[in-house]
Specification:
By secondary structure, the protein is an alpha/beta fold. It has helices at 6-16, 23-35, 38-54, 71-74, 89-97, 125-133, 148-161, 186-194, and strands at 56-57, 64-65, 79-86, 103-107, 139-142, 167-170, 197-198. The chain is built from eight helices and seven strands, in the order αααββαβαβαβαβαβ.
């Protein structure tokens, strides 16, 4: 005899679609949702819908925001001539945790990966080159992950930007090769930032 509640199974399947969530974790999450009050469940569902409808990309750096510009691009206290290029919005959060970086960002939303069918045109490289050609940027820090794809993307962008006379640097390898920036601890990120080198 099988025990199958269709709505519960559907909920488990939705949680299981999330990164790094296996069947048992998805089941725990689904049962947690079932234990919520009606108001708590509505609040949870509303938060998901709000995030999906209100959050979009910043018109300058492509980070996530609810406004035209993200808080970093809007800030008058940030050095607009210093741009840190990252793969993902989560990397912006990681860099901000260091409280050492005072420039702005450019989020690529991925890396060049021919094996996965991702070329430069699928990323925000074109708008980064436009920013570099404006004459307002003095340095671009390549903070892509230290992987083959991350290094390839950094080198590709470097070759496009160098003709504009903009200094292009790479984070120092205080971050282990093959690791993601979002999982690096604050001290490792600070060392990597201060020890960056020109490409």
């Amino acid at each position: 005899m099988s025990y199958d509640v269709a709505a519960l199974e559907k909920l488990i399947e939705q949680f299981q679609k999330m990164p790094s969530i296996g069947r048992k974790t998805a089941q725990r999450m689904a049962f947690h949702v079932l234990d919520l009050t009606d108001d708590e469940a509505k609040e949870f569902a509303d938060a998901i819908i709000d995030a999906h409808t209100k959050i979009h990309r910043c018109s300058v750096c492509h980070n996530l925001t609810e406004n035209e510009l993200c808080p970093v691009c809007e800030s008058v206290n940030r050095d607009k001539g210093l741009v840190c290029v990252v793969e993902d919005p989560r990397d912006v959060l990681a860099m901000e945790r260091t409280r050492e970086y005072s420039g702005v960002y450019h989020v690529l939303h991925g890396v060049i990966s021919p094996m996965n069918g991702i070329g430069p045109e699928q990323l925000t490289i074109k708008s980064l080159v436009e920013r570099a050609s404006s004459g307002n940027i003095t340095e671009i820090i390549m903070a892509t992950n230290p992987t083959i794809e991350g290094d390839t993307t950094a080198m590709y962008i470097s070759k496009l930007i160098k003709p504009f006379g903009v200094k292009v640097t790479r984070l120092a390898y205080g971050i282990p090769v093959g690791a993601d920036i979002e999982y690096a601890d604050d001290i490792t990120l600070m060392r990597a930032l201060s020890g960056r080198s020109e490409l």
